[in-house]
Amino acid sequence: MGARTEGALVWDKRDDMVVHESEPYNAEPPRGALADQVLTATDTFYSRNHGPIPRLEPTSWRLRVDGMVDGARDFSLDQLRTEFAAHTVLATLQCAGNRRAGLIEVRDIPGEDPWGPGATSTAQWSGVRLSDVLAAAGLSPGAAHIAFDAPDVSQLADPPQSYGASIPVHKALGAETLLAWAMNNQPLPAVHGAPVRVVVPGHIGARSVKWVQRITAQRQPSDNYFQATAYRLLPAEADPSDGLSLGAVAVNSDILRPDDGASLPAGPTEVAGYALAGGDRGVARVDVSVDGGRTWRQAELDDQRSPWAWQHWRCTLTLPGGEVEIIARAWDTSAAAQPESPAQLWNPKGYVNNSWARVHVTVDR
Amino acid sequence: MGARTEGALVWDKRDDMVVHESEPYNAEPPRGALADQVLTATDTFYSRNHGPIPRLEPTSWRLRVDGMVDGARDFSLDQLRTEFAAHTVLATLQCAGNRRAGLIEVRDIPGEDPWGPGATSTAQWSGVRLSDVLAAAGLSPGAAHIAFDAPDVSQLADPPQSYGASIPVHKALGAETLLAWAMNNQPLPAVHGAPVRVVVPGHIGARSVKWVQRITAQRQPSDNYFQATAYRLLPAEADPSDGLSLGAVAVNSDILRPDDGASLPAGPTEVAGYALAGGDRGVARVDVSVDGGRTWRQAELDDQRSPWAWQHWRCTLTLPGGEVEIIARAWDTSAAAQPESPAQLWNPKGYVNNSWARVHVTVDR
């Protein structure tokens, strides 16, 4: 509980955050806290860090844009605000480790936090389009990747190094990709990347680099540890030299209510949760089953409020008495469905568990 | 066998096409015919039709572009060739019913053809960009969908009507979306849509309308039967008013060699197949298992020759003697994997079977 209190106090998070680590600070809200709300309150938004959280002075902060551009440029926060049009995007961020706990149940994943469904949150992000800043610097046609560097040094990297990532240039030029200084209409807090962070909707959270201080246009992906080595989906029998570098997010969902392990009275129960389809896809349908997937009911799905945001869903069921497993699965607009088994998705770093969502409850007879 | 011969003669297809129907002509190549080749020969390319195949006179053919444009325009084939830059795209088309046979094994799907893995083929398509033609007509900003109409009348539609479809405007404006008059560097044959067809890479084949004669910019999707009613993924317990309108293709793969049911000598066996990821995704990895999915080996995956084309893969295995099930599954660049079970994907019209690929062989002991 010490860690929880400390994190909540220092980073203005709610008291009941599930703190996986306090240094670096890694915390997610409890399952139920995300239910029903399109927008996640800033004090509830998950926080994933790889090193100490920098506290940067906005007035002295500078953003360098270099590499394959006409000439390197430095921008102050004031310059970003005055030289470019402001844009706001409603977007969900999801950590690649979201729902890792379900993979750890299959086989342990030493050294990685057992994130639940709460490493997924949604905010209104405001700032400038990355594409506008790149255009101002004169992006060269041969640039294929846009790399980001931040000042937070991670001792977990091999070798220890500051955080970095990159995204393909076509994603960097998307109107949805921002350099954001505000979150839910308030200045970005330190724990979420103040004064300015990258927001890459539809891609894993690791690419939305916080405290960004350098943007480099280049031919190749970033060679930073967190792009080149971590955040790769390795085969179950890992060859660490190999693996899929994670970018766009696969269709996923989880059940937010009732809580896993809940005891419920007999009678109608409302089951509710979120669903998310990454990249350029949307959520098309969510199904719920209480008989192990033999039959499914369709949940009521909220309208899509933004192409880059999750959608909440709900379904009222009369559950049988006793121990019940509630299962949910989402389909995206390409008719891709969540796969059934976490065992089939197990991977050495525990990324991208998008197997069927399951909670277990006890219902009065 | 009569139907096979007739189709082959009339439509210049290879003799061993698997003809599901001769009127309308619906045929796919045998499993092995697709192996290894990036390009599918035109006489091997699958053909999916909903009505009699029109034979149009290229010189009198006109393309009308209307709806939410500055003014309706009519284009002759000569005008398309001379007024716009020509482009060639290597792209795979895949019928939404590809691999339906695997769903029919779960539960019958009356009135739908049991397509195998061969309703997937790849060609070099040459023509003009749809976006260039829309720009020439002055596309209105409010247009959200681009609808296509063709002259082939389908008696299978309710009510009987000529074929039509639509795609979202952002896909219509993609540089990959063509009005094509050539296939594999030869004039488009009648059976593939001469004189001009739409090619929508990354989306289900049904949107690549053959013999296109009208293009309409509009606010809503097409109300043609084949957009509004057919080609929708319905829940297993169907409510026919509902369902997901199919567009981008989900990650899929199949085994092309050895053939299903083959008898093999003991010793090393090369397993080969294709994998395809639709929309803006690529194929990231293909795994092969001979123990029911308990362990997997990674196949060797060909380089991506085009963002819109399948990738072939192969893997040399020493199979145990006796009856063996060979399984393959692909992962796309968002780390989405093919789901395991066709039973979980069964749907009333039998679309989008992207469950694990499986062939059964007998190996000498």
Describe this structure in words.
Two copies of one chain form a homodimer. The first copy, chain A, is built from six helices and 23 strands. With 365 residues, chain A is mainly beta. In chain A, a hairpin with a 7-residue loop joins strand 18 (283-289) and strand 19. In chain A, the strands form six sheets. In chain A, strands 4-3-12-7-8 form a five-stranded mixed β-sheet. Chain A starts with a helix and ends with a strand. The longest helix of chain A is centred in the first third of the chain and has 10 residues, at 2-11. In chain A, 10% of the residues lie in helices and 36% in strands. At the A-B interface, strand 18 of A face strand 18 of B.
- The total count of helices of chain A amounts to 6
Distance between the termini of chain A: 35 Å
Largest sheet of chain A: 5 strands, mixed
| Strand order, sheet with most strands of chain A | 4-3-12-7-8
Low-pLDDT runs of 5+ residues of chain A are 1-5
Mean pLDDT of chain A: 95
Chain pair with largest interface: A-B, 39 and 39 residues
- Indicate the multimeric state: homodimer
Please estimate the helix content of chain A.
10-25%
Q: Can you tell me the overall shape of chain A?
A: globular
Q: Strand tally of chain A, please?
A: 23
Radius of gyration of chain A: 21 Å
H-E string of chain A:
HEEEEHEHEHEEHEEEEHEEEEEEEEEEE
Strand fraction band of chain A?
A: 35-45%
Counting helices, strands and paired strands, the structural category of chain A is: mainly beta
